[in-house]
C-alpha cells in the first residue's frame, strides 16, 4: 500500500504541484481513507520527501544507463533530457520551484544529491566529447560542468521563466543548444545541426 500511495502522490504532485495537492486529494484519488495514508507517512512533508527521493533514484539510475551506452556526447545529452522530461511529466507544475519555495530543506538536500550525480555525468560527457572531437579541447571541464548544473537549475526558476510563456521542454531544448554551441567544434556543430534537423522532422 505504501508504494501505491507514493505512485499516486507522485503523479498528482508532478501534474498539479507539491503545494496544491492535499492528503485528502491523494486519499480521494485512491479511494482510501486519509487515515490509511497516515499509517505509512507521518505528514505531507514526509510523503513529499519520500516521493522526491524515489524520483531522484529512478532518474539517476536511468541517466546511468544512458551514459553507460557511450553514445555520441551530443546525442547523449538530448537522450537524458528526453528521459528526465518523461519522468517529470514535462515539469508542468514546476516541481523544483515549488520544492524550493515550500519545502526548502527537502530541496536543499535534493539539490546537493543532484549536483553530485550531474557532476560525474556531465564531466564524463564533456571528456568523451573532447576525445571524440565534437567538443573543443580547450574547454575547462570542471568550469563547464558547474556552469551547466547552474544553468539547468536556473532555467527552472518560475519567476524568470513563467510556464505560461515557456514550456519546460522548450526551455531545455534552447538551453541544450546554447550549451553545446558554446563548447563544440566544427565537427560537433555539424552533429548538432543534423540532430536538431532530424528531431524537428519527427
TrEMBL record:
Keyword Endoplasmic reticulum annotated: no
UniProt keyword list: DNA-binding
Residue ranges for the DNA-binding region feature of this UniProt entry: 22-41
SUPFAM superfamilies: Homeodomain-like
Domain HTH tetR-type: 1-59
GO-annotated molecular function: DNA binding
Keyword DNA-binding: yes
Record Pfam families: TetR_N (PF00440)
Protein name: HTH tetR-type domain-containing protein
